[in-house]
Specification:
It comes from Cuculus canorus (Common cuckoo). The protein has 222 residues and is an alpha+beta fold. 40% of the residues lie in helices and 14% in strands. The chain has a domain of 57 residues: Double Stranded RNA Binding Domain (2-Layer Sandwich). The protein has a two-stranded antiparallel sheet with strand order 1-2. It has a two-stranded antiparallel ribbon with strand order 3-4. It has a two-stranded antiparallel ribbon with strand order 5-6. A hairpin with a 6-residue loop joins strand 5 and strand 6. The radius of gyration is 21 Å and the shape is globular.
Length: 222
């Protein structure tokens, strides 16, 4: 039985503190402020997780490879890399995926829907992060600056990749074989060699591919 109800929307909770935290959704109040940067949060656990960005503390460690994470949910997602289980299955074709995000991206093959449209030009994207990067085109903001040479970039990922010119470091490393990459997307494409995952399926014949470029080349057959 859930005995604590929100007076605004009627949603019920097991504990009084849960309903107090929930009511901030209606009031817009963010009572927990970070002493380092001033960013405010609805819940205490959110500010605790955020403050680890400033301290560098990553308390959640993978028992398989030792990689550490700020929050437990990130560790749980990461552990699926080491698992052979595909927990998320497509209702249309039955193909299985290790993460819900991969399943959602795959389902757009069947629906054609892209969930994140740009309010300025209408272009749609599969991922919110892709939309956020795209919107910088409209604002013209080059907000990420290289400390070495002063060159500025719209996206943080572009800055990180650029900085490797100065450091020679490749930031994204494969947990299976140790090969390193400049871009996270390149690492994800490489990872499919180890997982066997083929997320890009042809809508004409159903054949699947590791890389989108391979799918596009194949589609010329049809």
């Amino acid at each position: 039985e859930r005995s604590f109800a929100c007076t605004e929307c009627g949603k019920c909770f097991n504990q009084k503190q849960q309903v107090i935290n929930h009511q901030y959704v209606h009031t817009g109040k963010r009572p927990f402020a970070c002493m380092e940067c001033g960013k405010c949060f609805n819940r205490k656990e959110q500010i605790i997780n955020h403050q680890r960005m400033h301290t560098g503390n990553r308390p959640f460690s993978c028992t398989d490879c030792g990689k550490r994470f700020l929050v437990k949910s990130s560790l749980n997602r990461h552990k699926q890399i080491h698992s052979d289980t595909n927990h998320f299955s497509c209702d249309e074709c039955g193909e299985g995926f290790r993460t819900k995000a991969f399943l959602v991206a795959h389902q757009e093959i069947h629906t054609g829907a892209k969930a994140f449209p740009c309010p300025d030009c209408g272009k749609s994207f599969n991922w919110k992060g892709s939309l956020d990067r795209h919107k910088l085109i409209h604002t013209g903001a080059n907000q990420f600056s290289c400390a070495e040479c002063g060159e500025r970039f719209r996206a943080k990922s572009s800055l990180i990749a650029h900085q490797e010119i100065h450091t020679g470091k490749k930031a994204f490393s494969c947990a299976d074989c140790g090969k390193s990459f400049n871009w996270k997307g390149s690492l994800l494409s490489h990872r499919s060699i180890h997982t066997g995952e083929r997320p890009f399926a042809c809508t004409e014949c159903g054949k699947s591919f590791r890389l989108k470029s391979h799918l596009l080349s194949h589609q010329y057959v049809h």
